[in-house]
Amino acid sequence: MASVVRSSKYRHVFGTTAKREDSFENLRVATSAWDSNFVTANPKYVAVNWAASGGGAFCVVPQALTGKLRGDFPVFSAHQGAVLDTAFSPFDDNVIASAAEDHQVMVWRVPEDLEEREEDVTEPTAVLRGHGRKVGHVVWNPVAEGVLAASSSDNTVRIWDVERAEVRQTLGGFGDAVMSIAWSPDGTQLAATCRDKKLRIFDARTGRVEHEAASHTGIKGSRVVWLGADRLATTGFSRTSGREVWVWDAALAPVTRMDVDTSAGMLMPFYDAGTRVLYVAGKGDGNIRYYEFADDKLHFLSELQSPEPQRGLGVMPRRGVDVPRCEVMRFYKVASNSLVEPISFRVPRKSESFQSDIYPPAHAGCPALSAEEYFAGKCAQPKMVDMEVIYRDGPLIVGSGAPPVQSSAFVTVSAPVSVSAPVAQRSAPAPQQPTPVPQQPTPVTQCPVPERQSPVSQNQSPASQNQTPQRQSPAPEPSELISLREETARLQLALTQAQKAATDASTRERNTQQQLDDASRQLSDHEQTARKLQAQIDAGVSADQLHAVESKLQAAVNDADSLRADLDRASMQAEEYRRKLEQATNKASEHEKTSAELQKDLQTAIQAANALALAAEKAVDNL
């Protein structure tokens, strides 16, 4: 029976590595062993973790500045420890967050004169303090402006309000260090993998663990990424160190499990929600496999193979791809400690017109909610832009100084992109009661919104709609009936306002209680930190000395481990020598015993010879 080839628009997607002159050379990429991507990108810049001495730094390079970077190019340097992760804001291409070993998260604004600048950038716009240990990952909320999630080795994930520089929620319950975090498409949930081999989904605003499940059983780390609204994918290792990819539903029930290979490097997953293609790249090898996710299955499309291993990968947002050349994905590969190569994935098409079938709407780079609205319990879907605008005008730059986009370019979506059967839309933590009174949407700075119908036509209550033809009727109405209707409308409005006030009060009460709980936890953390600092002050040891002592202690521990290994080897050799000595002693004893017997035989022979000699002498005398 002939096999059936599965139909797909992306079955022939192929990847191409950029030429040397189109890559970024003469970099100093950090050599940290932390599981990080090392590079991140947007349509305007590429950022890499920098190998800096005496602190931490990262470098932001304009997209147009390919080739060899000048040796004195400015870096962003204010961290006291190595920078472990960076992330550009999805709503402003000039804003970037960094996480480091100094327990801090910093938010920066890229200066406009970066290419001409000679001195380093040393002043962040915000410093987020509160983590107890090094901060390993930072991820921006895809819907709300200024909401940032940061994971730390203190076994917590903190949700920050960047504008206020304060923690709005702390996610706990982890049994070990957090390995990766990922926002849901609507920004209400946060998925996290942990070294305790469990996958968790949190309500990001209440801090409640909604779902928890045992994940990959291997001792190495794992990563997580959302596949639309109700599916997730994780990469990790089996108990026998085989690399694998698992697909989960929204309740963390396993849907698909796939073995990849037995290589040792971490698998880095990247999902394109528009094309529904999952890219899986291996750390330490040069392979990038990609699968189309449909019908709850991962359908293998192809694989990009390269002899150059990749230390990390960054991905370009879809609003920055080259649409006229049918590019659907672009990676930035850390090929060595000094080179970052763009890798373009394209659909082979000969037509020069816009290919609408392979370009569904993309994230527009405009927030749907403010931070206050988000933490107050409001929900919204990401704002989307028609990719034909990018085909016509080029990559979409967002943020301050970016050219405005016509409102007709934006596309309204009613629910997140889902790859399975529709699921019920999640409600916000604060209950939202319907109201017949039209409400004006909260304006967002520098963010044009799609044209909408009049609020009266959209939000008008059924009662008011039934009254409209009566008001337009030419027949006169009694004044008492008119007054009664006006009074009814006024009472209905008052009731609606009272219900809304009660709901807001209940929300504020819950938020206040949550803030009190957070403040109590922070107070406990501060007290513990104060006790540690006091102990350091009493000991008269400075932070630099502590770092030096820690480094020396770590070196001593390493030396002790090496000496212990040498001692074990010497003990084994000594045991072997002792065994050989015992064997030699036994042989010597046997030789001594044999020698004594031979000596006795010799004495007997000598005595016999003497007797014969004496007998011979007597015989001679007799003769």
Count of alpha/pi helices: 6
Q: What profile does the largest beta sheet have?
A: 4 strands, antiparallel
The order of strands across the largest sheet is 1-30-29-28
From the spread of the alpha carbons, the general shape counts as elongated
Number of strands: 33
| Helix vs. strand class | alpha+beta
Low-pLDDT windows of residues: 416-476
Percent strand equals 25-35%
Q: What oligomeric state do these chains adopt? A: single chain
Helix content: 25-40%
Average pLDDT taken over every residue = 83
Report how far apart the termini are. Answer: 122 Å
Rg over CA atoms, rounded to whole Å, is 36 Å
Description of the structure:
With 623 residues, this protein is α+β, with helices and mostly antiparallel strands. The protein contains six helices and 33 strands. It has helices at residues 371-375, 387-393, 455-459, 462-472, 479-539, 543-622; strands at 14-17, 24-25, 39-41, 45-50, 56-62, 67-68, 76-79, 83-89, 92-100, 104-109, 126-129, 135-140, 147-152, 156-161, 166-171, 178-183, 189-194, 198-203, 209-214, 223-226, 231-237, 243-249, 254-261, 267-272, 277-282, 288-294, 297-304, 313-315, 327-336, 339-346, 362-363, 384-385, 410-411. The strands form nine sheets. Strands 1-30-29-28 form a four-stranded antiparallel β-sheet, with no helix packed on it. It has a four-stranded antiparallel β-sheet with strand order 3-4-5-7, with no helix packed on it. A hairpin with a 5-residue loop joins β4 (45-50) and β5. Mean pLDDT is 83; it is low at 416-476.
Summary of the model, kept short:
With 623 residues, the protein is α+β, with helices and mostly antiparallel strands. The chain has helices at residues 371-375, 387-393, 455-459, 462-472, 479-539, 543-622; strands at 14-17, 24-25, 39-41, 45-50, 56-62, 67-68, 76-79, 83-89, 92-100, 104-109, 126-129, 135-140, 147-152, 156-161, 166-171, 178-183, 189-194, 198-203, 209-214, 223-226, 231-237, 243-249, 254-261, 267-272, 277-282, 288-294, 297-304, 313-315, 327-336, 339-346, 362-363, 384-385, 410-411. The chain is elongated and about 180 Å long.
